[in-house]
Design brief:
Layout (H helix, E strand, L loop, with lengths): L5 H5 L5 H16 L13 H10 L5 H32 L1
Helix pairs in contact: 2-3, 2-4
Family: Belongs to the RNA polymerase subunit omega family.
Protein name: DNA-directed RNA polymerase subunit omega
Subunit structure: The RNAP catalytic core consists of 2 alpha, 1 beta, 1 beta' and 1 omega subunit. When a sigma factor is associated with the core the holoenzyme is formed, which can initiate transcription.
Length: 92
Amino acid sequence: MARITVEDCLEHVDNRFNLVLLAAKRARQLEHGVEPLVPWDNDKPTVVALREIAAGLITPETVEEQEQKSDSIDDELAAALAQEVQAAVNGL
């Protein structure tokens, strides 16, 4: 696998600070089960995130969209769990 350089990633991100933030957020998403957009060749999540950024597949907007989807799913699961708990309490 070819090495990823900061310069490759900076073609798609404004500056190094934003690159670090974007890569960290995306790596966290990958760790939590979000499907990678590039082949995962036994790499760590951070490397996969940087490969996605260097390929131009991940932007701050796409990461934000994924976070919003995850938050929405979390809210739905929490509501469903609360209903089940309430039903169990009422059934006692």
